[in-house]
Specification:
Radius of gyration: 41 Å
Number of strands: 4
Oligomer: single chain
Number of helices: 30
Largest sheet: 2 strands, antiparallel
Helix content: 55-70%
Shape: elongated
Distance between the termini: 97 Å
Length: 690
């Protein structure tokens, strides 16, 4: 409850919050209606005393009603609310008693108490009416929803099912709209009131012979009844619920006010409180977050391949992620006090928005890195082309970078795009920049996979299914494997460049990528494509996801054909290098013998370390390694050792002098070096006497 200022500002009184806190604190957590009724009576007496509205003295009773003209403070609304709650608690206590005894007098008393609760509720709604300007729009609508809830319970007890359904459905509509226009606490409070109406909606719909009443959920029944019996027949709704048009007008005014205060753009309503992503829709309860998501999507949609526009979009998505994290924390705090199924779903919804912004940020970084790497590779003439296109090379050694291209620093392609953050690649050679950029892409994908897995683990299954969370992990894993193949291809080009000249290492990298990485990436891409998400709406983040993460079999085929075209080139260069060596070098045994014939390039053999390693380590080791050393062709040559090595070794030996003395036929004293024997003199001169 908030205090008003002296200039008669509209009263703000949280009716839903006051009711929930009072009921949960004073008895209704244990269904103790008697204790709650006593609290209402005691609190009502104190509030009346505070605003000078006590009803007489201990000897005389003088009734004092609170009318709409008298309402100047929140305490006046509190008096009417406590009167309604006191009568309602008495009615619920009588209903429990009647269920045990079935005495008609108790039922008559129950109906009278519910009528008193409805009367106090009508007075509360009239005092807080939006037309009077005494209270703000939310307080007025909460009072109307509370009045309709009391009336629905009265009609339910009287057996008037159609009237009960009318009041319950309209109260539910008001509460749902208030939930979407407030904070996480307002959302949880409104849905706590909705759950109290669900039994009335279900049973009243069944008794009113509504179609699908036995199978449908209360929310579906309420939406169907509201669209057909109220929106479709306004005259009937006016007759069933007095003041129906005023309630709907106040609700529309509150929605318009909330949207105008959040943003001047009327299109915010298209984004408000729902996120469309990966073919699903996630609902949440934050108008501020809806505006931030709209701005971020607009910034990404207008961005091109330039880094400046992508940086603006990244900044916008960082704001979305920060706001979603704050809303998630508020939802957790609200759910701890106001537990409901809807509050748990709200937590998962904010997690989904966090996952959405996290994916967008990683996608922007990946798109920048891949774009820079492709520009540099195309400039150097080693870019991976489609499998059906002719190779870019014209000569047998064109795939190998010469010293001019591979050693140039400060790439113009990178400088146009702005480089990576902090200038990571600005001072590297162009061929090295390509490898470093793809390393950054793989790190971004690995980080995205870890973050997404952590968020999906905390998310409710329904929300995870809405955004196809399992497919996110599969698609990111396939992209990571594919970019690993691309990285291996360009790393081989770097090893084979004139600056490095490691042709055998380049050949081994190409072999490893072709035999291990390509099949692994192809299997992951096939599995991910079998569960591909069909997207009817083309949204900016979804388009960027398709370009940067979605890997098809044709992409992997292009990488495979590029590697197959590069292997013969490196093999021939190995042969040329071997033939240019001196005759003595050609006679040397070892790897140079393998490159004399292009067909005798290094073969892949089983990795013995991977077979003997533990399970946790075996996954990170390659199953096959190039056979670069042939031990069968290795000759061992003896190396001469100086006598000093023997002296150093003998100095560490502790000789058994008694055994030496017995074997030499001398006494132990003589053997220890005390005599002048020949053996004792030699040992004593070297190590001294023992």
């Amino acid at each position: 409850m908030s205090k008003t200022s002296t200039d008669q500002a509209p009263i703000e009184f949280g009716i839903f919050g006051y009711i929930h806190e009072s009921r949960q604190t004073y008895g209704l957590r244990a269904q103790d209606y008697l204790r709650y009724r006593r609290f209402c009576a005691h609190r009502l007496r104190n509030v009346r005393s505070g605003v000078k509205l006590t009803q007489g003295t201990s000897t005389a009773f003088r009734k004092k009603e609170v009318t709409a003209d008298m309402v100047k403070k929140p305490e006046h609304l509190e008096i009417l609310l406590l009167q309604a709650e006191r009568a309602w608690a008495f009615a619920m206590d009588l209903r429990e008693l009647y269920s045990r005894t079935e005495e008609p007098r108790q039922r008559y008393h129950l109906i009278r108490r519910l009528r008193a609760a409805c009367k106090a509720g009508e007075q509360l709604a009239a005092a807080a009416a939006a037309s009077s300007g005494t209270c703000d729009g939310r307080t007025s609508l909460e009072a109307q929803a509370y009045k309709l809830q009391m009336q629905s319970q009265l009609f339910f007890e009287l057996g008037e099912w159609t009237s009960a359904l009318d009041c319950a459905v309209l109260s539910r509509v008001i509460s749902e709209q208030l939930a979407l226009l407030g904070s996480s606490r307002h959302y949880a409070l409104a849905h706590a009131m909705l759950e109290a109406l669900d039994p009335i909606v279900r049973l009243a719909a069944y008794r009113a012979r509504m179609a699908g009443a036995q199978q449908s959920q209360p929310a579906e029944l309420a939406a169907q009844w509201y669209s057909t019996k109220m929106l479709g027949d306004v005259t009937r709704a006016e007759q069933a619920i007095p003041g129906y048009s005023d309630i709907t007008a106040a609700l529309d005014a509150l929605v318009a006010s909330a949207n105008s205060s959040a943003s001047g753009d009327a299109q915010v309503l298209a984004y408000a409180n729902s996120l469309k992503w990966r073919g699903g829709v996630v609902s949440y309860a934050s108008q501020e977050l809806a505006v931030l998501i709209k701005d971020a999507q607009g910034a990404l949609q207008t961005a091109t391949e330039g880094d400046d526009a992508l940086d603006v979009a990244a900044t916008a998505f960082k704001r979305v992620k920060k706001a979603a994290h704050r809303c998630h924390s508020e939802a957790i705090a609200a759910s701890a006090k106001i537990h409901s199924t809807a509050s748990e779903a709200l937590e998962s919804a904010y997690l989904a928005v966090q996952l959405y912004s996290t994916c967008a940020l990683h996608l922007i970084a990946i798109a920048k890195g891949v774009g820079q790497a492709k520009d540099i590779a195309a400039k150097l003439g080693i870019a991976i082309e489609a499998a059906d296109k002719p190779p870019l090379i014209g000569r047998s050694h064109a795939w190998i970078l010469d010293s001019a291209a591979g050693g140039k620093r400060g790439s113009s392609a990178v400088s146009k795009r702005g480089g990576q953050r902090g200038g990571v690649t600005d001072n590297l050679a162009e061929s090295t920049q390509v490898v470093v950029l793809y390393d950054m892409v793989r790190k971004n994908l690995s980080s995205l996979k870890t973050s997404a897995a952590a968020m999906l683990e905390r998310m409710m299954p329904a929300t995870s299914r809405a955004v196809h969370g399992h497919q996110i992990i599969e698609e990111v894993a396939a992209a990571e494997a594919y970019y690993g193949c691309v990285r291996g291809y360009y790393s081989a080009a770097l090893h084979a460049s004139a600056a490095h000249g490691k042709l055998l290492d380049a050949l081994a990298l190409l072999d490893s990528t072709l035999s291990e990485d390509i099949p692994h990436a192809l299997a992951l891409a096939t599995a991910a494509s079998s569960h591909a998400v069909s997207q009817s709406d083309s949204l900016p983040v979804d388009d960027l996801w398709c370009r940067a993460v979605m890997v098809t079999n044709s992409d992997i085929d292009s990488a495979e054909h590029a590697i197959k075209r590069a292997i013969p080139i490196v093999s021939r260069l190995c042969a040329i290098t071997a033939s240019a060596d001196s005759p003595a070098a050609q006679r040397k045994s070892g790897p140079s013998d393998w490159v004399s014939d292009p067909t005798g390039r290094p073969v892949m053999v089983a990795n013995e370390l991977a077979a003997s390693a533990s399970k946790s380590l075996a996954g990170s080791l390659p199953q096959y390694v190039p056979k670069l050393v042939d031990l069968t062709a290795t000759e061992f040559v003896p190396v001469p050792i100086k006598p000093l090595f023997y002296d150093l070794a003998a100095s560490s030996i502790d000789f058994d002098m008694e055994l030496i003395g017995r074997r030499s036929g001398k006494s132990s004293t003589a053997a220890a070096g005390g005599s002048s024997s020949k053996l004792g003199s030699i040992i004593g001169s070297l190590w001294g006497s023992r």
